[in-house]
Amino acid sequence: MDPIREELERRWQQMLERAAAGDDLPPALRLRTEGLMEALVLAGAVEPAALSAAMAEAWRQAMGEPLAATLGDDWESVHPFPAIPFYQARAPVVPSTGDD
Fold first, then answer.
1. How far is C-alpha 2 from the chain's CA centre?
2. According to DSSP H, which parts of 22-66 are helical?
3. How far apart are CA 80 and CA 8, in angstroms?
4. pTM of whole model > 0.85?
5. What are the tens digits of pLDDT across the range 26-63?
6. How far apart are alpha carbons 36 and 68 in whole angstroms?
7. Per residue in 52-75, is it b (16+ CB within 10 Å) or e — as a string?
8. Sorting pLDDT into bands at 50, 70 and 90, what band is 96?
9. CA pair distance 96, 79, nearest whole angstrom
10. CA angle 54, 67, 37 (to 5 degrees)
11. Model confidence at 90, in pLDDT bands (50, 70, 90)?
């Protein structure tokens, strides 16, 4: 496999592990990974649809459900290529004051 593609998949996995653990997903990691995706397409190594499908499959394997189940069937129109729609779980919010 292409070393750039291997690095891309390693970064997806890193982001997914962090998201599953409820950890922060640093914007720099996301942006650099999106740049790798764009570079692969510009180099003619892969089509955008193939990378989006591979990214969705990585999500399914890591999270146990399709990306569409989490973000909706139109996730690709909301997050156009090369956007990576991986998010950490929302933190629980506990009010610090009463509703009085």
1. 20
2. 27-42, 48-63
3. 17
4. no
5. 899 999 999 999 999 999 999 999 999 999 999 999 88
6. 23
7. bebbbebbeebeeeebeeebeeeb
8. confident
9. 35
10. 35
11. low
**3-21 vs 48-63: helix crossing angle, rounded to 10:** 40
Q: How far apart are CA 78 and CA 18, in angstroms?
A: 22
Q: Which residue has the tokens 């996995």?
A: 13
Token pair recorded at residue 79: 């997050």
Structure-block tokens of residue 74: 């139109």
Angle made by CA atoms 68, 72, 78, in degrees to the nearest 5: 105
Tell me how far apart the alpha carbons of residues 50 and 15 are, in angstroms, rounded to a whole number. Answer: 19
Structure tokens at 100: 């009085």
**Phi, psi of 93, rounded to the nearest 5 degrees:** -110, 125
Task: Give the pLDDT confidence score for residue 50 in this predicted structure.
Answer: 95
- Residue 34 has φ and ψ, to the nearest 5°, of -60, -35
